[in-house]
Amino acid sequence: MENEMHLSKTYIESFQGDVVPLWLEADEELLEASSGEVSWQLSGRSVRIRRFCSDEPEPISYGVLLMMRDVGESTICAEYKNQRLFCTVVVREKRTADPHRNMKYLLGDLHIHTTNEHDSARFRARTEELPGACIRDIEDTKALDFAVLADHGSLMDGKKLFEAFQAVEKAETEHTILFAGCEASLDEAQYDRYGFRKKYFGEIVTLNSAHCIAAMYTEDFCDTLSQSPFPMAVLAHPQILGHAPGWGMWVSALRQNATPAMKRLVRSVEMGNGTDRQSNLINEYVYSVALDCGFQVTPSCNSDSHGNYKLCPGKTIVLAPEKSKEMILDALYHNRAYACESGRVLLDFTINGQPIASTLPETTAYHFRVGIQLLNMAACAVDEAASDALPVLCQVISDYGKTVAHVKLTSEAQHTDGTVLEFDVESQTARYFYLRLVDAKGRKTWSAPIWTGRAMDTISLEAPGEVIEKANFGAVDLVNGQNAGNVICDDIQLAYESDCKTAEIRIDMKQEYEICAISHIVPKIYRALLTEQGVAQQDEFSRYVHEFRIWSSVDGEQYELCTEGIARIYGEEELYRFEPRRSRYVKFEVVNTVGSVCGWKQYAEATVKLGELSVYRVR
To answer: pTM to 2 decimals?
Structure first.
Protein backbone atom coordinates (compact mmCIF):
# COMPACT_ATOMS: atom_id res chain seq x y z
CA MET A 1 0.00 0.00 0.00
CA GLU A 2 2.83 2.40 0.87
CA ASN A 3 4.23 2.17 -2.67
CA GLU A 4 0.86 2.51 -4.38
CA MET A 5 0.02 6.10 -3.48
CA HIS A 6 1.63 9.38 -2.46
CA LEU A 7 0.85 13.08 -2.24
CA SER A 8 1.46 15.31 -5.22
CA LYS A 9 3.87 17.30 -3.00
CA THR A 10 5.42 16.78 0.39
CA TYR A 11 6.70 20.34 0.75
CA ILE A 12 5.11 23.59 -0.43
CA GLU A 13 6.45 27.08 0.09
CA SER A 14 4.39 30.02 -1.17
CA PHE A 15 3.14 33.53 -0.43
CA GLN A 16 0.16 34.84 1.51
CA GLY A 17 -2.95 34.79 -0.65
CA ASP A 18 -1.87 32.01 -2.99
CA VAL A 19 -4.19 29.06 -3.74
CA VAL A 20 -2.44 25.74 -4.39
CA PRO A 21 -3.85 22.26 -5.11
CA LEU A 22 -2.74 19.16 -3.24
CA TRP A 23 -3.92 15.69 -4.10
CA LEU A 24 -3.43 12.00 -3.56
CA GLU A 25 -1.64 10.35 -6.47
CA ALA A 26 -2.33 6.70 -7.20
CA ASP A 27 -3.50 4.47 -10.01
CA GLU A 28 -7.02 5.17 -11.29
CA GLU A 29 -8.54 2.08 -9.69
CA LEU A 30 -7.26 3.02 -6.27
CA LEU A 31 -8.44 6.62 -6.60
CA GLU A 32 -11.90 5.45 -7.59
CA ALA A 33 -11.99 3.10 -4.63
CA SER A 34 -10.89 5.90 -2.28
CA SER A 35 -13.66 8.27 -3.37
CA GLY A 36 -15.21 9.80 -0.27
CA GLU A 37 -12.85 7.96 2.07
CA VAL A 38 -9.77 10.19 2.13
CA SER A 39 -9.74 12.51 5.14
CA TRP A 40 -7.64 15.64 5.39
CA GLN A 41 -6.39 17.13 8.63
CA LEU A 42 -4.58 20.37 9.26
CA SER A 43 -2.21 21.41 12.02
CA GLY A 44 -1.11 25.03 12.15
CA ARG A 45 -2.97 28.26 11.38
CA SER A 46 -1.18 29.55 8.30
CA VAL A 47 -3.28 27.53 5.82
CA ARG A 48 -6.98 26.95 5.26
CA ILE A 49 -8.26 23.85 3.42
CA ARG A 50 -11.00 23.90 0.77
CA ARG A 51 -12.54 20.42 0.61
CA PHE A 52 -14.85 19.07 -2.13
CA CYS A 53 -16.38 16.08 -0.38
CA SER A 54 -19.71 17.59 0.70
CA ASP A 55 -22.43 19.74 -0.85
CA GLU A 56 -21.03 19.06 -4.31
CA PRO A 57 -22.82 17.52 -7.32
CA GLU A 58 -19.87 15.13 -7.69
CA PRO A 59 -17.92 14.99 -4.39
CA ILE A 60 -14.23 14.15 -4.40
CA SER A 61 -11.99 13.48 -1.45
CA TYR A 62 -8.65 12.77 -3.15
CA GLY A 63 -7.74 16.46 -3.48
CA VAL A 64 -8.03 19.81 -1.72
CA LEU A 65 -7.12 23.43 -2.36
CA LEU A 66 -4.80 25.10 0.12
CA MET A 67 -5.41 28.78 0.79
CA MET A 68 -2.32 30.53 2.14
CA ARG A 69 -3.60 32.90 4.80
CA ASP A 70 -1.00 33.80 7.43
CA VAL A 71 2.77 33.72 7.66
CA GLY A 72 3.92 30.53 9.32
CA GLU A 73 4.11 26.76 8.89
CA SER A 74 1.37 24.15 8.74
CA THR A 75 1.21 20.43 8.16
CA ILE A 76 -1.39 18.74 5.98
CA CYS A 77 -2.21 15.10 6.56
CA ALA A 78 -4.13 12.89 4.11
CA GLU A 79 -5.39 9.63 5.62
CA TYR A 80 -6.78 6.65 3.71
CA LYS A 81 -7.32 3.20 5.24
CA ASN A 82 -4.94 3.86 8.12
CA GLN A 83 -2.18 5.14 5.85
CA ARG A 84 -1.15 8.73 6.61
CA LEU A 85 0.71 11.00 4.19
CA PHE A 86 2.11 14.41 5.13
CA CYS A 87 2.90 17.70 3.41
CA THR A 88 4.64 20.65 5.06
CA VAL A 89 3.40 24.08 3.98
CA VAL A 90 5.41 27.24 4.62
CA VAL A 91 3.68 30.56 4.03
CA ARG A 92 5.77 33.70 3.69
CA GLU A 93 4.69 37.32 3.56
CA LYS A 94 3.30 38.45 0.22
CA ARG A 95 5.63 40.84 -1.56
CA THR A 96 4.45 44.15 -2.99
CA ALA A 97 6.40 45.75 -5.81
CA ASP A 98 7.66 49.33 -5.65
CA PRO A 99 5.72 51.11 -8.43
CA HIS A 100 8.63 53.52 -8.99
CA ARG A 101 11.18 50.85 -9.90
CA ASN A 102 11.83 49.60 -13.42
CA MET A 103 9.13 47.23 -14.59
CA LYS A 104 8.83 44.50 -17.18
CA TYR A 105 5.93 44.54 -19.64
CA LEU A 106 4.12 41.20 -19.38
CA LEU A 107 1.41 40.35 -21.92
CA GLY A 108 -1.55 38.24 -20.92
CA ASP A 109 -5.11 37.06 -21.41
CA LEU A 110 -7.47 37.02 -18.40
CA HIS A 111 -10.40 35.21 -20.03
CA ILE A 112 -9.89 31.84 -21.76
CA HIS A 113 -12.36 28.94 -21.91
CA THR A 114 -11.13 25.39 -22.40
CA THR A 115 -14.22 24.25 -24.31
CA ASN A 116 -17.15 25.33 -26.48
CA GLU A 117 -19.50 23.28 -24.30
CA HIS A 118 -22.38 25.18 -22.70
CA ASP A 119 -24.35 22.26 -21.26
CA SER A 120 -23.52 21.67 -17.60
CA ALA A 121 -24.18 17.92 -17.59
CA ARG A 122 -21.98 17.31 -20.63
CA PHE A 123 -19.33 19.67 -19.30
CA ARG A 124 -19.10 17.85 -15.98
CA ALA A 125 -19.18 14.44 -17.63
CA ARG A 126 -16.32 15.12 -20.02
CA THR A 127 -13.33 12.86 -19.67
CA GLU A 128 -11.01 14.26 -22.32
CA GLU A 129 -8.05 16.38 -21.29
CA LEU A 130 -9.55 19.72 -22.30
CA PRO A 131 -7.62 21.94 -19.86
CA GLY A 132 -4.39 20.28 -20.97
CA ALA A 133 -5.20 20.72 -24.66
CA CYS A 134 -5.99 24.39 -24.15
CA ILE A 135 -2.78 24.89 -22.16
CA ARG A 136 -0.75 23.34 -24.98
CA ASP A 137 -2.41 25.71 -27.47
CA ILE A 138 -1.51 28.67 -25.26
CA GLU A 139 2.09 27.56 -24.87
CA ASP A 140 2.45 26.92 -28.60
CA THR A 141 1.66 30.58 -29.37
CA LYS A 142 4.59 31.75 -27.21
CA ALA A 143 2.80 35.11 -27.13
CA LEU A 144 1.43 35.19 -23.56
CA ASP A 145 3.36 35.74 -20.35
CA PHE A 146 0.27 34.89 -18.28
CA ALA A 147 -3.19 33.44 -18.88
CA VAL A 148 -6.34 32.66 -16.88
CA LEU A 149 -8.40 29.53 -17.60
CA ALA A 150 -11.96 30.63 -16.81
CA ASP A 151 -14.71 28.18 -17.71
CA HIS A 152 -18.31 29.14 -16.92
CA GLY A 153 -19.29 28.98 -13.25
CA SER A 154 -22.80 27.96 -14.29
CA LEU A 155 -21.28 24.76 -15.73
CA MET A 156 -18.58 24.00 -13.19
CA ASP A 157 -18.72 22.13 -9.94
CA GLY A 158 -16.01 21.75 -7.31
CA LYS A 159 -14.46 18.79 -9.08
CA LYS A 160 -14.04 20.70 -12.34
CA LEU A 161 -12.59 23.68 -10.52
CA PHE A 162 -10.13 21.41 -8.75
CA GLU A 163 -9.22 19.76 -12.08
CA ALA A 164 -8.46 23.21 -13.49
CA PHE A 165 -6.06 23.86 -10.59
CA GLN A 166 -4.55 20.43 -11.15
CA ALA A 167 -4.06 21.10 -14.86
CA VAL A 168 -2.32 24.40 -14.13
CA GLU A 169 -0.11 22.77 -11.49
CA LYS A 170 0.88 19.92 -13.80
CA ALA A 171 1.43 22.08 -16.87
CA GLU A 172 4.93 22.06 -18.26
CA THR A 173 5.03 25.57 -19.68
CA GLU A 174 8.21 27.52 -20.29
CA HIS A 175 6.67 30.80 -21.36
CA THR A 176 3.25 31.29 -19.72
CA ILE A 177 2.31 31.69 -16.06
CA LEU A 178 -1.10 30.02 -15.72
CA PHE A 179 -3.98 30.73 -13.34
CA ALA A 180 -7.06 28.61 -12.71
CA GLY A 181 -10.17 30.76 -12.65
CA CYS A 182 -13.88 30.84 -13.40
CA GLU A 183 -16.32 32.99 -15.34
CA ALA A 184 -18.86 33.46 -12.60
CA SER A 185 -22.25 35.02 -13.11
CA LEU A 186 -24.68 37.22 -11.21
CA ASP A 187 -28.23 37.06 -12.49
CA GLU A 188 -30.77 38.68 -10.21
CA ALA A 189 -34.05 39.25 -12.07
CA GLN A 190 -35.30 42.83 -11.97
CA TYR A 191 -37.74 44.74 -14.14
CA ASP A 192 -37.67 48.28 -15.47
CA ARG A 193 -40.62 50.67 -15.38
CA TYR A 194 -41.66 49.44 -18.85
CA GLY A 195 -42.03 45.89 -17.50
CA PHE A 196 -38.97 44.46 -19.27
CA ARG A 197 -36.72 42.05 -17.47
CA LYS A 198 -33.23 43.31 -16.73
CA LYS A 199 -30.49 40.75 -16.32
CA TYR A 200 -28.89 43.61 -14.44
CA PHE A 201 -25.58 42.01 -13.56
CA GLY A 202 -23.56 39.87 -15.92
CA GLU A 203 -20.56 37.59 -16.04
CA ILE A 204 -17.40 38.17 -14.06
CA VAL A 205 -14.07 36.36 -14.32
CA THR A 206 -12.55 35.38 -10.99
CA LEU A 207 -8.99 34.29 -10.33
CA ASN A 208 -6.99 33.20 -7.32
CA SER A 209 -10.20 31.98 -5.71
CA ALA A 210 -10.84 28.50 -4.30
CA HIS A 211 -14.51 28.73 -5.31
CA CYS A 212 -16.56 28.91 -8.49
CA ILE A 213 -19.98 30.45 -8.28
CA ALA A 214 -23.16 31.30 -10.17
CA ALA A 215 -25.00 33.62 -7.78
CA MET A 216 -28.22 35.58 -7.64
CA TYR A 217 -27.04 38.32 -5.29
CA THR A 218 -23.86 40.32 -4.87
CA GLU A 219 -23.77 39.56 -1.14
CA ASP A 220 -23.58 35.81 -1.86
CA PHE A 221 -20.97 36.40 -4.53
CA CYS A 222 -18.77 38.51 -2.25
CA ASP A 223 -19.17 36.20 0.75
CA THR A 224 -18.18 33.14 -1.27
CA LEU A 225 -15.15 34.69 -2.95
CA SER A 226 -13.98 36.32 0.27
CA GLN A 227 -13.37 32.89 1.77
CA SER A 228 -10.15 32.99 -0.24
CA PRO A 229 -7.51 35.38 1.10
CA PHE A 230 -6.58 37.24 -2.13
CA PRO A 231 -9.29 36.84 -4.81
CA MET A 232 -9.79 39.18 -7.77
CA ALA A 233 -12.46 39.72 -10.39
CA VAL A 234 -12.73 41.14 -13.91
CA LEU A 235 -16.00 42.47 -15.37
CA ALA A 236 -16.38 40.40 -18.54
CA HIS A 237 -17.76 41.86 -21.83
CA PRO A 238 -19.66 44.38 -19.71
CA GLN A 239 -21.91 45.82 -22.41
CA ILE A 240 -22.74 42.65 -24.35
CA LEU A 241 -26.30 41.36 -24.51
CA GLY A 242 -26.94 38.18 -22.57
CA HIS A 243 -28.07 34.86 -24.03
CA ALA A 244 -31.18 34.84 -21.85
CA PRO A 245 -33.93 37.39 -22.53
CA GLY A 246 -33.00 40.61 -20.82
CA TRP A 247 -29.93 42.70 -20.51
CA GLY A 248 -26.62 41.35 -19.24
CA MET A 249 -24.80 44.59 -18.68
CA TRP A 250 -22.57 45.43 -15.75
CA VAL A 251 -22.80 49.17 -16.25
CA SER A 252 -26.19 49.35 -14.53
CA ALA A 253 -25.26 47.12 -11.62
CA LEU A 254 -22.16 49.09 -10.69
CA ARG A 255 -24.14 52.03 -9.41
CA GLN A 256 -26.40 49.76 -7.38
CA ASN A 257 -23.54 47.68 -5.97
CA ALA A 258 -20.61 49.98 -5.33
CA THR A 259 -20.13 48.31 -1.94
CA PRO A 260 -16.80 48.02 -0.11
CA ALA A 261 -16.86 44.25 -0.66
CA MET A 262 -17.36 44.57 -4.43
CA LYS A 263 -14.73 47.28 -4.66
CA ARG A 264 -12.18 45.01 -2.98
CA LEU A 265 -12.88 42.22 -5.48
CA VAL A 266 -13.29 43.98 -8.83
CA ARG A 267 -9.93 45.06 -10.23
CA SER A 268 -10.46 45.25 -13.99
CA VAL A 269 -13.00 45.97 -16.74
CA GLU A 270 -12.79 44.06 -20.02
CA MET A 271 -12.61 46.35 -23.06
CA GLY A 272 -12.93 43.60 -25.68
CA ASN A 273 -10.48 41.41 -27.58
CA GLY A 274 -8.91 43.94 -29.92
CA THR A 275 -11.23 43.31 -32.86
CA ASP A 276 -13.78 45.68 -34.39
CA ARG A 277 -16.78 43.75 -33.06
CA GLN A 278 -19.50 46.33 -32.43
CA SER A 279 -20.11 45.43 -28.80
CA ASN A 280 -16.44 46.26 -28.14
CA LEU A 281 -17.16 49.87 -29.06
CA ILE A 282 -19.03 50.61 -25.84
CA ASN A 283 -17.16 48.61 -23.20
CA GLU A 284 -15.02 51.62 -22.35
CA TYR A 285 -18.07 53.41 -20.97
CA VAL A 286 -18.28 50.80 -18.19
CA TYR A 287 -14.66 51.56 -17.28
CA SER A 288 -15.38 55.26 -16.68
CA VAL A 289 -18.65 54.49 -14.86
CA ALA A 290 -16.76 52.13 -12.55
CA LEU A 291 -14.20 54.83 -11.81
CA ASP A 292 -16.96 57.36 -11.13
CA CYS A 293 -18.49 54.88 -8.67
CA GLY A 294 -15.20 54.67 -6.77
CA PHE A 295 -13.94 51.31 -8.06
CA GLN A 296 -10.15 51.01 -8.28
CA VAL A 297 -10.04 49.29 -11.65
CA THR A 298 -7.89 49.04 -14.75
CA PRO A 299 -8.86 48.14 -18.33
CA SER A 300 -8.00 44.76 -19.86
CA CYS A 301 -8.17 43.13 -23.31
CA ASN A 302 -8.91 39.40 -23.36
CA SER A 303 -9.81 36.80 -25.96
CA ASP A 304 -12.86 35.11 -24.39
CA SER A 305 -11.65 32.20 -26.52
CA HIS A 306 -13.71 28.98 -26.42
CA GLY A 307 -12.29 25.53 -27.15
CA ASN A 308 -9.01 25.47 -29.02
CA TYR A 309 -7.19 28.60 -27.95
CA LYS A 310 -7.00 31.24 -30.66
CA LEU A 311 -4.68 34.16 -30.10
CA CYS A 312 -6.46 37.51 -30.39
CA PRO A 313 -4.76 40.84 -31.08
CA GLY A 314 -5.84 42.49 -27.81
CA LYS A 315 -3.71 41.94 -24.69
CA THR A 316 -3.78 42.79 -21.02
CA ILE A 317 -0.37 44.23 -20.18
CA VAL A 318 0.85 44.30 -16.59
CA LEU A 319 3.88 46.08 -15.20
CA ALA A 320 5.81 43.87 -12.82
CA PRO A 321 9.44 43.66 -11.70
CA GLU A 322 9.58 39.97 -12.54
CA LYS A 323 7.60 37.33 -14.34
CA SER A 324 6.06 35.35 -11.51
CA LYS A 325 2.61 34.40 -10.26
CA GLU A 326 3.08 36.54 -7.17
CA MET A 327 4.13 39.70 -9.01
CA ILE A 328 1.43 39.35 -11.70
CA LEU A 329 -1.25 39.12 -8.99
CA ASP A 330 0.34 42.08 -7.20
CA ALA A 331 0.27 44.13 -10.42
CA LEU A 332 -3.38 43.31 -11.13
CA TYR A 333 -4.47 44.06 -7.58
CA HIS A 334 -2.59 47.37 -7.44
CA ASN A 335 -3.81 48.45 -10.91
CA ARG A 336 -0.45 48.37 -12.68
CA ALA A 337 -2.09 47.10 -15.87
CA TYR A 338 -3.59 48.40 -19.07
CA ALA A 339 -5.42 47.25 -22.19
CA CYS A 340 -4.00 47.30 -25.71
CA GLU A 341 -6.13 46.30 -28.73
CA SER A 342 -3.10 45.77 -30.97
CA GLY A 343 -1.07 44.06 -28.24
CA ARG A 344 1.95 46.10 -29.30
CA VAL A 345 2.03 49.40 -27.42
CA LEU A 346 4.41 49.64 -24.47
CA LEU A 347 3.17 52.59 -22.44
CA ASP A 348 5.02 54.56 -19.76
CA PHE A 349 2.64 57.13 -18.30
CA THR A 350 3.17 59.52 -15.39
CA ILE A 351 1.51 62.67 -14.05
CA ASN A 352 3.67 65.02 -11.99
CA GLY A 353 6.25 62.23 -11.91
CA GLN A 354 3.85 59.67 -10.40
CA PRO A 355 3.17 56.39 -12.23
CA ILE A 356 -0.16 54.76 -13.11
CA ALA A 357 -2.44 53.82 -10.21
CA SER A 358 -0.95 56.55 -8.02
CA THR A 359 -2.99 59.04 -6.01
CA LEU A 360 -1.55 62.52 -6.39
CA PRO A 361 -1.26 65.28 -3.81
CA GLU A 362 -4.12 67.65 -4.53
CA THR A 363 -3.28 70.29 -7.12
CA THR A 364 -4.81 71.98 -10.15
CA ALA A 365 -1.77 71.62 -12.44
CA TYR A 366 -0.98 68.27 -14.02
CA HIS A 367 2.13 67.59 -16.10
CA PHE A 368 1.72 64.54 -18.33
CA ARG A 369 4.64 62.48 -19.59
CA VAL A 370 3.71 59.72 -22.02
CA GLY A 371 6.39 57.33 -23.24
CA ILE A 372 5.40 55.11 -26.19
CA GLN A 373 7.27 52.20 -27.73
CA LEU A 374 6.23 49.29 -29.92
CA LEU A 375 6.76 45.65 -29.08
CA ASN A 376 8.78 43.93 -31.79
CA MET A 377 6.92 41.97 -34.46
CA ALA A 378 8.19 38.51 -33.49
CA ALA A 379 6.95 38.85 -29.93
CA CYS A 380 3.54 39.96 -31.17
CA ALA A 381 3.01 37.04 -33.55
CA VAL A 382 1.32 39.44 -36.00
CA ASP A 383 1.92 40.33 -39.59
CA GLU A 384 1.43 44.05 -40.12
CA ALA A 385 3.39 47.18 -40.83
CA ALA A 386 4.76 48.84 -37.73
CA SER A 387 3.23 52.13 -38.88
CA ASP A 388 -0.26 50.64 -38.47
CA ALA A 389 0.32 50.11 -34.74
CA LEU A 390 1.83 53.52 -34.03
CA PRO A 391 -0.54 55.80 -32.09
CA VAL A 392 -1.62 58.87 -34.03
CA LEU A 393 -3.66 60.43 -31.23
CA CYS A 394 -3.37 60.67 -27.44
CA GLN A 395 -6.53 61.61 -25.55
CA VAL A 396 -6.88 62.36 -21.84
CA ILE A 397 -10.14 61.10 -20.31
CA SER A 398 -11.45 62.32 -16.97
CA ASP A 399 -14.64 62.31 -14.88
CA TYR A 400 -17.79 60.92 -16.49
CA GLY A 401 -15.84 59.70 -19.51
CA LYS A 402 -15.22 63.19 -20.87
CA THR A 403 -12.20 63.89 -23.05
CA VAL A 404 -10.30 66.86 -21.59
CA ALA A 405 -7.23 66.96 -23.86
CA HIS A 406 -6.16 65.85 -27.35
CA VAL A 407 -2.57 65.53 -28.50
CA LYS A 408 -1.91 64.50 -32.10
CA LEU A 409 1.31 62.69 -32.83
CA THR A 410 3.07 64.24 -35.80
CA SER A 411 5.02 62.08 -38.22
CA GLU A 412 8.21 63.38 -36.56
CA ALA A 413 6.96 62.14 -33.19
CA GLN A 414 6.09 58.65 -34.45
CA HIS A 415 9.01 56.31 -33.97
CA THR A 416 8.87 52.57 -33.50
CA ASP A 417 11.90 52.80 -31.21
CA GLY A 418 10.26 55.28 -28.85
CA THR A 419 8.34 58.54 -28.51
CA VAL A 420 7.85 60.82 -25.51
CA LEU A 421 4.97 63.30 -25.27
CA GLU A 422 4.89 66.00 -22.60
CA PHE A 423 1.98 68.37 -22.04
CA ASP A 424 0.00 70.05 -19.26
CA VAL A 425 -3.64 69.90 -18.19
CA GLU A 426 -5.34 72.26 -15.75
CA SER A 427 -8.33 71.14 -13.67
CA GLN A 428 -9.93 72.16 -10.40
CA THR A 429 -12.43 69.28 -10.33
CA ALA A 430 -10.91 66.14 -11.89
CA ARG A 431 -11.03 62.96 -9.80
CA TYR A 432 -8.96 60.83 -12.19
CA PHE A 433 -7.25 60.81 -15.57
CA TYR A 434 -6.54 57.96 -17.94
CA LEU A 435 -5.16 57.86 -21.47
CA ARG A 436 -6.71 56.62 -24.68
CA LEU A 437 -4.18 56.16 -27.49
CA VAL A 438 -5.55 55.55 -30.99
CA ASP A 439 -3.47 54.01 -33.80
CA ALA A 440 -3.79 54.36 -37.57
CA LYS A 441 -6.32 51.51 -37.75
CA GLY A 442 -8.50 52.86 -34.95
CA ARG A 443 -7.29 50.39 -32.31
CA LYS A 444 -6.95 51.77 -28.83
CA THR A 445 -4.68 51.48 -25.86
CA TRP A 446 -6.26 52.47 -22.54
CA SER A 447 -4.07 53.22 -19.56
CA ALA A 448 -4.75 52.55 -15.93
CA PRO A 449 -5.98 55.65 -14.11
CA ILE A 450 -4.07 58.11 -11.97
CA TRP A 451 -6.25 59.54 -9.21
CA THR A 452 -6.11 63.18 -8.11
CA GLY A 453 -7.13 62.63 -4.49
CA ARG A 454 -10.51 64.37 -4.79
CA ALA A 455 -13.59 62.55 -3.51
CA MET A 456 -16.07 61.12 -6.02
CA ASP A 457 -19.58 62.55 -6.31
CA THR A 458 -22.36 60.87 -4.36
CA ILE A 459 -24.43 58.65 -6.65
CA SER A 460 -28.19 59.19 -6.48
CA LEU A 461 -30.34 56.20 -7.42
CA GLU A 462 -33.69 57.90 -6.90
CA ALA A 463 -35.67 59.49 -9.71
CA PRO A 464 -35.46 63.30 -9.51
CA GLY A 465 -39.18 63.75 -10.06
CA GLU A 466 -42.05 62.17 -11.95
CA VAL A 467 -42.38 61.29 -15.60
CA ILE A 468 -44.67 63.57 -17.59
CA GLU A 469 -47.41 61.80 -19.54
CA LYS A 470 -46.45 61.94 -23.25
CA ALA A 471 -49.79 61.29 -24.93
CA ASN A 472 -50.02 64.84 -26.33
CA PHE A 473 -46.32 65.40 -26.99
CA GLY A 474 -44.94 66.02 -30.45
CA ALA A 475 -41.36 65.36 -31.59
CA VAL A 476 -39.40 66.35 -34.68
CA ASP A 477 -35.73 66.07 -35.68
CA LEU A 478 -34.63 69.61 -36.55
CA VAL A 479 -31.58 68.32 -38.46
CA ASN A 480 -33.58 66.67 -41.25
CA GLY A 481 -37.17 67.70 -40.53
CA GLN A 482 -38.32 64.11 -39.90
CA ASN A 483 -41.07 63.17 -37.50
CA ALA A 484 -39.43 61.61 -34.42
CA GLY A 485 -42.55 60.28 -32.75
CA ASN A 486 -40.93 56.92 -31.98
CA VAL A 487 -38.92 58.53 -29.16
CA ILE A 488 -42.09 59.50 -27.25
CA CYS A 489 -44.38 56.53 -27.99
CA ASP A 490 -43.80 54.60 -24.72
CA ASP A 491 -42.74 51.51 -26.72
CA ILE A 492 -39.06 50.79 -26.11
CA GLN A 493 -38.95 48.19 -28.85
CA LEU A 494 -39.38 50.99 -31.39
CA ALA A 495 -36.67 53.41 -32.39
CA TYR A 496 -36.15 56.65 -34.22
CA GLU A 497 -33.65 56.04 -37.02
CA SER A 498 -32.06 58.98 -38.78
CA ASP A 499 -30.04 59.10 -41.98
CA CYS A 500 -27.76 61.71 -40.37
CA LYS A 501 -24.78 61.47 -37.99
CA THR A 502 -26.32 64.05 -35.66
CA ALA A 503 -29.82 64.82 -34.43
CA GLU A 504 -31.75 67.56 -32.63
CA ILE A 505 -34.94 66.06 -31.27
CA ARG A 506 -37.30 68.86 -30.28
CA ILE A 507 -40.14 67.76 -28.02
CA ASP A 508 -43.15 70.03 -27.71
CA MET A 509 -44.87 69.22 -24.41
CA LYS A 510 -47.83 71.52 -25.40
CA GLN A 511 -47.75 73.28 -22.04
CA GLU A 512 -45.18 74.52 -19.54
CA TYR A 513 -43.76 72.32 -16.79
CA GLU A 514 -40.98 72.73 -14.24
CA ILE A 515 -38.65 70.06 -15.59
CA CYS A 516 -35.56 68.59 -13.92
CA ALA A 517 -34.32 65.65 -16.04
CA ILE A 518 -34.45 63.88 -19.39
CA SER A 519 -34.01 60.13 -19.68
CA HIS A 520 -33.05 57.90 -22.58
CA ILE A 521 -33.19 54.17 -23.04
CA VAL A 522 -31.75 52.48 -26.11
CA PRO A 523 -34.31 50.57 -28.21
CA LYS A 524 -34.76 47.00 -27.04
CA ILE A 525 -35.59 45.70 -30.49
CA TYR A 526 -32.94 43.02 -29.99
CA ARG A 527 -35.81 40.80 -28.84
CA ALA A 528 -37.04 40.71 -32.44
CA LEU A 529 -33.52 40.03 -33.69
CA LEU A 530 -32.87 36.85 -31.76
CA THR A 531 -31.49 34.08 -33.92
CA GLU A 532 -32.73 30.52 -33.72
CA GLN A 533 -29.95 29.82 -31.22
CA GLY A 534 -31.22 32.62 -28.98
CA VAL A 535 -28.16 34.83 -29.45
CA ALA A 536 -28.83 38.52 -29.93
CA GLN A 537 -27.55 40.08 -33.13
CA GLN A 538 -25.37 43.01 -32.14
CA ASP A 539 -25.20 45.32 -35.11
CA GLU A 540 -26.51 48.61 -33.74
CA PHE A 541 -24.02 49.76 -31.10
CA SER A 542 -22.21 52.11 -33.48
CA ARG A 543 -25.45 54.11 -33.94
CA TYR A 544 -26.04 54.79 -30.25
CA VAL A 545 -25.71 58.33 -28.94
CA HIS A 546 -22.26 59.28 -27.64
CA GLU A 547 -22.09 62.98 -26.81
CA PHE A 548 -25.32 64.86 -26.08
CA ARG A 549 -26.64 68.26 -25.07
CA ILE A 550 -30.04 69.01 -23.54
CA TRP A 551 -31.72 72.36 -24.09
CA SER A 552 -34.95 73.91 -22.80
CA SER A 553 -37.16 76.72 -24.03
CA VAL A 554 -40.41 78.42 -23.14
CA ASP A 555 -41.16 79.83 -26.61
CA GLY A 556 -39.38 77.39 -28.94
CA GLU A 557 -37.06 80.15 -30.16
CA GLN A 558 -34.63 80.94 -27.36
CA TYR A 559 -33.02 77.81 -25.85
CA GLU A 560 -31.02 77.48 -22.65
CA LEU A 561 -28.43 74.72 -22.12
CA CYS A 562 -29.55 72.40 -19.31
CA THR A 563 -26.70 69.87 -19.30
CA GLU A 564 -24.29 68.02 -21.56
CA GLY A 565 -22.19 64.90 -21.34
CA ILE A 566 -21.40 61.40 -22.59
CA ALA A 567 -24.15 58.77 -22.78
CA ARG A 568 -22.74 55.64 -21.13
CA ILE A 569 -25.64 53.54 -19.86
CA TYR A 570 -27.10 51.08 -22.36
CA GLY A 571 -28.58 48.48 -20.00
CA GLU A 572 -31.32 50.58 -18.50
CA GLU A 573 -32.91 53.99 -18.57
CA GLU A 574 -30.25 56.68 -18.09
CA LEU A 575 -31.19 59.89 -16.33
CA TYR A 576 -29.61 63.22 -17.22
CA ARG A 577 -30.35 65.58 -14.34
CA PHE A 578 -30.20 69.37 -14.26
CA GLU A 579 -31.43 72.31 -12.21
CA PRO A 580 -35.24 72.77 -12.46
CA ARG A 581 -36.51 75.26 -15.02
CA ARG A 582 -39.83 76.26 -16.61
CA SER A 583 -40.12 74.88 -20.14
CA ARG A 584 -42.57 73.94 -22.85
CA TYR A 585 -39.95 72.72 -25.33
CA VAL A 586 -36.96 70.47 -24.73
CA LYS A 587 -34.31 69.60 -27.27
CA PHE A 588 -32.17 66.46 -27.09
CA GLU A 589 -29.14 67.08 -29.28
CA VAL A 590 -27.05 64.12 -30.42
CA VAL A 591 -23.63 65.69 -31.07
CA ASN A 592 -22.13 62.45 -32.38
CA THR A 593 -22.59 58.68 -32.35
CA VAL A 594 -20.51 55.91 -30.83
CA GLY A 595 -19.33 54.86 -34.28
CA SER A 596 -18.38 58.33 -35.49
CA VAL A 597 -15.96 58.83 -32.57
CA CYS A 598 -14.67 55.26 -32.09
CA GLY A 599 -11.74 55.48 -34.51
CA TRP A 600 -12.64 52.43 -36.60
CA LYS A 601 -13.08 53.72 -40.15
CA GLN A 602 -15.96 51.39 -41.03
CA TYR A 603 -18.12 53.04 -38.35
CA ALA A 604 -17.14 56.65 -39.01
CA GLU A 605 -20.40 57.40 -40.85
CA ALA A 606 -22.68 55.77 -38.26
CA THR A 607 -26.06 57.50 -38.21
CA VAL A 608 -28.26 58.15 -35.19
CA LYS A 609 -30.55 55.57 -33.66
CA LEU A 610 -32.49 56.66 -30.57
CA GLY A 611 -34.84 54.88 -28.22
CA GLU A 612 -37.40 56.30 -25.83
CA LEU A 613 -36.98 59.80 -24.37
CA SER A 614 -38.86 60.84 -21.25
CA VAL A 615 -39.14 64.19 -19.48
CA TYR A 616 -39.21 64.42 -15.67
CA ARG A 617 -40.85 67.26 -13.81
CA VAL A 618 -40.45 68.37 -10.21
CA ARG A 619 -42.97 66.66 -7.96
So the answer is: 0.93
